[in-house]
Write a structure and sequence with these properties.
This protein is an alpha+beta fold and 142 residues long. It is 31% helix and 32% strand. The protein has a single domain, classed as Nuclear Transport Factor 2, Chain: A (Roll), CATH 3.10.450. It is globular and about 55 Å long.
């Protein structure tokens, strides 16, 4: 693997982790105020995050904690142009819980799958990688 490819893989992972961190901050307060999510996400990925924040805000839900995302350089596939990437991560929700702001009680469905894989697609725009979409596969645990 070339040094450029190794760096691209690291940058792809950093972009996904950055998006996840910004989502966790926004979901914790049901607001993107002060968020840097647009540095990490665009397209469907950004729309889906905004939709989740809006629904949580409308329903008085905040999300406490942070998800654990496990990924390795081997989980990144770059296309021939080096401008598109696919990333597979293990997403662990055991430390992330949806809470009703009024009651302080969990509203996380009791049978919700807590560990599953997510396949994310990223695109290099200018000098940075952005997550364009992601799809959870809750049948595939990790």
């Amino acid at each position: 693997m070339s040094s450029a490819e190794a760096q691209a893989r690291k940058d792809v992972i950093a972009a996904y982790q950055g998006m996840t961190e910004e989502q966790a901050k926004a979901y914790a307060k049901s607001s993107f105020a002060g968020s840097d999510i647009t540095k990490y996400a665009t397209g469907d990925a950004l729309r889906d995050a905004k939709d989740t924040v809006f629904v949580n805000m409308q329903n008085g839900i905040v999300v406490k904690g942070e998800p654990k995302v496990t990924v390795a350089n081997d989980d990144v596939t770059l296309d021939a142009s080096g401008r598109q990437a696919t990333l597979t991560v293990c997403f662990d929700l055991n430390t992330w819980e949806s809470i009703d702001k009024k009651t302080g009680k969990s509203v996380t469905p009791p049978n919700q799958v807590k560990r599953y894989t997510i396949t994310a697609h990223l695109q290099k725009q200018s000098s940075r990688w952005l997550v364009t979409n992601e799809k959870a596969d809750k049948e595939k645990t990790c």
